[in-house]
Amino acid sequence: MGITNLTGPADTSSSLIIYSPEHLQQTAARILAEVSLAYQQHDAAWQQVQHWLNNEVDPAWAEVMRACLIPYVRRLRSSYDWLRDLASAMLQAADALEESDRQMASFFQEASQSSSAASGSRLPDHGLVP
What we know:
- The protein is mainly alpha-helical.
- It has helices at 21-55, 59-117; strands at 2-5, 15-18.
- The protein has a two-stranded antiparallel ribbon.
- The two termini are 24 Å apart.
């Protein structure tokens, strides 16, 4: 599966970019594993920070620090969620590519069988041609 990549509007040359479903799945799995690990490390560190703020810092200063840290924590968690969504979209894309390949293979197998059974006859209509 691939698309043509043109380097500019006047460029008539093209090169094929290959998107392997297996590579998409492997990359998505790696993203999910690293995001999961990052979430765990982040949660552990955030618990340590909260413990320190609750037990070691003057309450007034603790509130100031929380006011700075909480938006950062939210942005960081949003980044992890975005990466998790990206990995999910990559897995869905890989599934769609594999399904498209299966459908095309099935279409060509049916067409091949039909044409050899009725030599010279028209290809079967699978709703692909108006």
